[in-house]
Write a structure and sequence with these properties.
By secondary structure, the chain is an alpha/beta fold. It has helices at 34-45, 71-83, 99-114, 125-136, and strands spanning 2-5, 15-20, 23-30, 55-63, 91-95, 118-122. It is built from 4 helices and 6 strands.
């Protein structure tokens, strides 16, 4: 598994970029700004090992910042993710474990789908990973 952090601060990083099993994972933790997410994704995509990614897993279960985001912020992030969708096979699994993040990710899904990105919302990472892997290997 490859990991990149969006910040050089010590301690837990607000946005982690991971790449494992062909899946890009953006994991938002505690406090961050949308620019942290964008930087982490763009930095991670420069690594040639991510060139054949089968999907993006966007995980907000430990986010504190999400509660301060507006619907416009969610839509703007959806547009940003859609702009880079070819880098992850135009597939995005959105993960939020409780009702508020799950609902916000459903809102983001509307933007992604409108922009031609296949997406779904999950309450846990296990099901999100399974969905992405099944999409990449239909019939297996």
């Amino acid at each position: 598994m490859q990991r990149w952090n969006s910040s050089r601060r010590r301690g837990p990083m607000p946005v982690n970029f991971e790449f494992t099993d062909g899946i890009i994972v953006l994991r938002m933790i505690d406090l961050y700004v949308p620019d942290d997410i964008q930087k982490a994704l763009l930095q991670g995509l420069t690594d040639p090992r991510t060139s054949n990614a089968i999907g993006l897993l966007f995980e907000v279960s430990r986010s504190k910042s999400l509660r301060t985001r507006s619907s416009d912020d969610i839509g703007a992030m959806g547009l940003f993710l859609a702009q880079h969708g070819d880098a992850y096979a135009r597939r995005v699994a959105l993960v939020g474990f409780d009702d508020f993040p799950f609902g916000m990710m459903r809102m983001g899904r509307v933007t992604l789908e409108r922009e031609g990105i296949t997406s779904d919302v999950f309450r846990d990472e296990t099901h999100a990973r399974k969905w992405l892997l099944e999409l990449s290997n239909p019939g297996s």
